[in-house]
């Protein structure tokens, strides 16, 4: 649920083997051979955490909500923790051993790449095309995609109504003829939300997700798409400089992503997460990095006392 404030409003045998064929087989099989389920992680003694520096999930400075979550998971498994820095365009390939690109709700498979990690955790949103290629764990953060502008933009946040679908329509209605930033290979890909039909002039941002809010502040575009955690961080970091116009998506979930076939590792994480929830450690971790999330999603985490 989206709760109104002064800056925001509610709302994945036999063939002869010639040399070329052998090379091709090695390219395909090698990443699969490096795949790591629960037994392999324990045998290796290291959980490799693929993370993109983003919002307060992965700071890039050795901390963040998902960094602490994965460090705790590694300790719970009895193995060491290793952070593997990646970016949004490479993260899934580094997990599954295959480069993929999103085309709206669909994917294009581009070939084998080396496997570099066992789990992606950096505030990754569960969206349909990702569900075709990765195995998501249980939800670790609630989210939604919002339309954001500079605070002095000549458009007002919508007044929340009784229908989220109507709120989304009214939010999108302000985009006709306006410039909008989005980003491919993320939940902020405008094609996921039928933005082309709004008449907006869409540009695909080349910088990091953390740089979208500053781009709006610097007048690089009239509007941008931001998801909840990044928007909340931006509202706190640049108070009075941006405003949320309204929602462009239904509520969404964020969750760690595992390799298809690694159900045992995914299930182990879900058991670990359930323990954290049961004794209150998960709420404390969330509120450490997102103290304001309880104002927007009180059903997800209890406010700090």
Descriptive overview:
This protein is of the alpha/beta class and 305 residues long. The protein contains eleven helices and 14 strands. It has a five-stranded mixed beta sheet with strand order 2-1-5-14-6. Strands 10-9-11-8-12 form a five-stranded mixed beta sheet, with helices on both faces. The longest helix is centred in the C-terminal third of the chain and has 17 residues.
CATH top-level class of the largest domain: Alpha Beta
| CATH level 3 topology of the largest domain | D-Maltodextrin-Binding Protein, domain 2
Approximate strand percentage? 15-25%
Structural class category? alpha/beta
What is the N-to-C order of secondary-structure elements (H for helix, E for strand)?
HHEHEHEEEHEEEHEEHEHEEEHHH
Q: How many domains would you count in the coordinates?
A: 2
Strand order of the largest sheet: 2-1-5-14-6
What overall form do the CA principal axes indicate? globular
Q: State the end-to-end CA separation.
A: 21 Å
Percent range of helical residues: 25-40%
Unreliable segments of 5+ consecutive residues: 1-35
Main beta sheet: strand number and arrangement? 5 strands, mixed
Tally the helices: 11
| CATH architecture descriptor text of the largest domain | 3-Layer(aba) Sandwich
**CATH homology group of the largest domain:** Periplasmic binding protein-like II
Q: What is the C-alpha radius of gyration, as a whole number of Å?
A: 20 Å
The overall pLDDT average reads 86
- Total beta strand runs: 14
